[in-house]
Structures are given as C-alpha cells and as structure tokens.
Amino acid sequence: MIIFYSPDIAACPELSEEDSGHAVRVLRHQEGDEITVVDGCGSFYNCVIAAAHPKHCALQVKSVEAEQHWAYGVHLAVAPTKNLDRIEWFVEKATEMGLDRFTPLKCRFSERKELKTERIRKIAVSAMKQSLKATVPQIDEMTDIKTFICEPFDGQKFIAHCMKDEPRKLLSHEIKAGAAVRVLIGPEGDFSQEEVALAIEHGYVPVSLGEQRLRTETAALASVHTIHVVNELKLTE
Ligand code: SAH
Question: Which class for 8: exposed (0-12), middle (13-18), buried (19 or more C-beta within 10 A)?
Fold first, then answer.
C-alpha cells in the first residue's frame, strides 16, 4: 500500500507537486483511481483522483478515518551526532517505531552544534508514509539543553547517562504505562555533570539503559523501543 501526504488536504484536496508527480507520472494513476492520503496530524483520507494532473493532482475525499495512535506521548531530546547519517537514521527508525516529538539538543560536549531540520522533517515524512502512519513527529529546532530542561512538561522525564558511579535506575523499570515520556540522550562525550545535576533539579530521573554502552543514536532508538514495549506489556496486563 502506498500513502500520500498532504498537510492541507482538509482545506485543499490536492496532492503536492512532488506527490502529484509520484502518483501520476511514476505510478500512472488516472482519474477515478482510489488512493489514501494522510495529513500528518492523525487522519487518513480515502480519496478518488478527480484530475490526474502531474503537478496538481486534484482529489475528491470519500471518507476520513482517525489513526489508532498510542495513548502516551514519546518525546526524545537527543544531542545530534557528528556524523549526520546517524541522527537521520535515528529519526527514520524512531518514526517507524512510534515517535511524537524530536528535539535536537545542544550540550556542553556536543560535537554538532547546528542541524538543518528541513532534511530531518523530510525523512520523518517519508518514514511516516512508509510505515503507514498518519502522524508525522514534531521536529524542533536545535535547543540549548539548559533552556530545554527548564521547559515545563506534563509527564515522566528521564535523563540517560553513562556515569557508572552516579545513581541510576533502569529506564524499563521506571516507565509508567499510559503517561507521556520524555528522554534526554547525550552526545558522544556524554552529558556534563552539571547538565545531569540541573536535569535532576528539574525533576528528571537519571536512568541507565543497561550494562551496554550504546552510541547516541542506538541509545535514543532503544529508549523509544523500551517505552513502547513497557506500555504494551503493562497495558495488556
Ligand atoms: N562517552 C561516554 C558514552 C556516551 S554514549 C562514555 O565513555 O561512557 C552517548 C549517550 O548515549 C549518553 O550520553 C547517554 O545518553 C546514552 N547512553 C548510551 N549507553 C547508555 C547506557 N547504557 N545507559 C544510559 N545511557 C546510555
């Protein structure tokens, strides 16, 4: 099944130039064909092609269905890796698994202090389509960790770090089913002691992801998976 994306479909039932080209030129869709379009905000639109124009493919909406979305928000705030491919890989895979929001963090030991979010947004959109979802994760601009930590958040807050001598609980043991979750993942050089202390001061629980020392993008993806698995297990208990 192929899904198209049109964020403005409710107001303007038409595919974007890129998706029009894909539908009409590449897939050879014609007037009268049925296609599914998502708005990125949780709705599937079952449509019929009204005019198979290769740049402005017009649609007639037949019905709208709401996505079955997980009940808890999954928000990962991650220090982007020096190598861009790795953080892009994370966004693609996390979107497939179920991510609601991604905030790139600027930390004391960050090797990457800038990030072009436009490309990351495109990757998130294509991962959403590929995994047949109707919601695209919110992608924030790079944010300084200190500003971010001070932001209010209504849910569970965790900071994952690798300082073995500091007290940490296991993330999988701490997650409560049904609650929104926010996890902070640090750069290649980890968080500074000061960043961890500030997070704890603001209600973040310091956590371990297990004995293995993971790369930033692996730790971030493992956290997303853990949140879903724990919720699935607890919600079906
Ligand atoms: N340079 C550090 C490793 C940093 S790994 C060291 O030598 O120990 C990068 C980030 O991944 C960390 O900041 C942390 O957020 C996360 N991470 C990786 N493995 C982890 C684990 N086992 N427990 C908790 N966090 C982990």
Answer: exposed
- Show which of 27, 47, 66 is a domain's final residue: 66
State the distance from the centre of ligand 1 to the C-alpha of 189, rounded, in angstroms: 8
Model pTM score: 0.95
Same domain, 161 and 193: yes
Closest residue by CA, ligand 1 atom 7: 189
Residues with CB under 6 A from ligand 1: 160-162, 185-186, 188-191, 208-210, 212-214, 216, 219
* Total number of domains constituting the chain: 2
| 82 backbone dihedrals φ, ψ, rounded to 5° | -60, -45
The model's pLDDT over 148-175, given as tens digits with 9 standing for 90+, comes to 999 999 999 999 999 999 999 999 999 9
